[in-house]
Amino acid sequence: MKILKYILGIVAILVIGFFLLGVIKSEQSYECEILVDKPLAESWAVSQDEEKLSQWLEGFQKFEHVSGTPNTVGAVSDVYFITDGQEMTIRETITEIVPDESVSMTFTSDFMDMDYTLAMKSVDGKTKISSSTKAIGNGMVSKSMMALMSSALKTQEETNLTSLKKTIEENSKNYSAVEN
């Protein structure tokens, strides 16, 4: 009986600690950066090309426009991913867009809400791509889980940017021929 009390006490401390972690570290923020050996205009065009999203966003399946004018402020879309064999839908809303410079979006899912900015800058004929992310869990369990996953979230973004770099540098599509 005494061992059972110790085990229950340890479990209670772990549960309290888990939820306390979500209270203390409820918001996750991180930034990533990469340098691409292609000019800014091409880098921007590749990053905005819906046909290339699956090449640099892990698990990306499809993109469905919901409302607003596509690729403009206020446009809302559902983005579908497969993660660990399960489909996940994230609602994306464009909050700001400056062509060839930056795009800011909010992402909403059952698990978390995220503010995300992808920015590009020309540096000696190359392109510096940076991302800034702020994410918060929806609910105490989500907040606590995100606090435990904070390094994994940043690692995933670094992987995405590395894949974007590869996609841009291997690009053979001529975007200047399709621009207005």
From TrEMBL:
InterPro entries per the UniProt record, alphabetical: Polyketide_cyclase/dehydratase, START-like_dom_sf
Alphabetical list of Pfam families matching this protein: Polyketide_cyc2 (PF10604)
Keywords: Membrane, Transmembrane, Transmembrane helix
Chain segments annotated as transmembrane: 6-24
Protein name as catalogued: SRPBCC family protein
